[in-house]
Amino acid sequence: MKPEITSRETIKPSSPTPNSQRWYKLSVFDQMSYGVYIPIILFYTSNGGDNPVDFSHRLSGLKKSLSETLTRYYPLAGRIGDGGSIECNDKGVDFFEARMHCHLQGFLNHPEFEALNLLAQGQIQCNNLDLSSTLIVQITFFDCGGMAIGVSMSHKVADISSMSAFLNDWATMARQSGEEEISAQFITSFFPPHDSLDIPEYVPRKINRVVRRFVFNASKLDALKTLATSHGVENPTRVQVVTALLYKCADAASRAVSDSPRASDLVQMVNLRRLVIPPLPDKSFGNLAWCFSISATEEGEVEFHDLVAQLKEGIAGFRLTYGISFSWYELSRLVSEFRKASASSFKRKGNMVRFTCTSWCRSPLYQVDFGWGKPVWISCTNVMWNTFILMDTRNGDGIEALVSLEEQNMNVFEHDEELLRFASLNPNAFEAP
Prior knowledge:
Elements: E1 4-11, E2 23-25, H1 28-31, E3 37-44, H2 55-72, E4 79-80, E5 85-87, E6 93-100, H3 104-107, H4 113-116, E7 135-142, E8 147-154, H5 160-176, E9 209-216, H6 218-229, H7 238-257, E10 264-271, E11 289-296, H8 304-322, H9 328-348, E12 353-359, E13 377-380, E14 387-392, E15 399-406, H10 407-413, H11 417-422, E16 424-425
Parallel strand pairs: 6-7, 10-12, 12-14
Antiparallel strand pairs: 1-6, 2-5, 3-8, 3-13, 4-5, 7-8, 9-15, 9-16, 10-11, 14-15
Helix pairs in contact: 2-5, 7-8, 7-10
């Protein structure tokens, strides 16, 4: 099933960007982020009872409010150039309209990622960033009146907290028709670029990766936390227990398909906004996340509770290291040293397997209301290899995990009995809590 692209245009800011804001410098954390898109898809029902949905009215409202929002988020309408800056030239964002000839409820019955990928334009890599739009939007209407809003934002300018802030401000603008003032607070003013920083280049690996969706409801999360506390781990969080279980099962799958035992590690991403002193607002725009790692040795299967304990110790150490009042230079130096040490360790251990986990839990994505209700489901596409992305379920009590692994590893992982005792594999997203 493939959407029909019916139009493509460029949306520009409603007011021109002043010359004083012509150049926007990327922050030190933007510099260290990969040039890929983060694609998010928000699904909405028609919410109109027996009345037919006026697609053209909704579309014109989205375009108008997006144009007004871009005036506040003016770097998104520019283009990334040389020297780690965005030229805020008001070239605008790519805006696609599409039709999907099926009903939303059937589409979300057991959503397949091959179909989800077609609802956002974020499969395009930002390999030529000076020519690429930093923001791409695709609006897809279903025959039943439901719709999907696919938003792909360059990771070079934003992280998930930034995307959530932008989406909620866009929705606010749409509901209020410009009556409510919104503003963006840019992180680059706190953490300017580092001229001598070794900036990574993202080179996609040619691997046949497979993405699967696993849902942990509240009772299963409680059971996982009870299992961890029964082995002496105090007050584990729901994110920690899910991350530990996913890592344990992914490590076991990797060992099962390997001819020789391989050590592995897990890189856990952490939002720095509330950890730095003084803390920054949740909606601060730009990249502001870093990481710590835990590991499993080559000797044998790692225990679930040991991994939960490592995650708790890791975040405690992380807070001691980064949660103090560093200058931007000191913080960027620490991050740069961590990157070099991590790369050296990875190289030294040879064929070590690396996994990455990022949690989007508590991000207010399910609050994004353009005027016709909150989304019934949210997902993302373009999940990188060996990566776990955690998100809240609609009611906020459970966790959805998107897991991307090499195909042969996934064939083992998705049948892991321990995993399936606590998680459901791709249940109905429309009826999910």
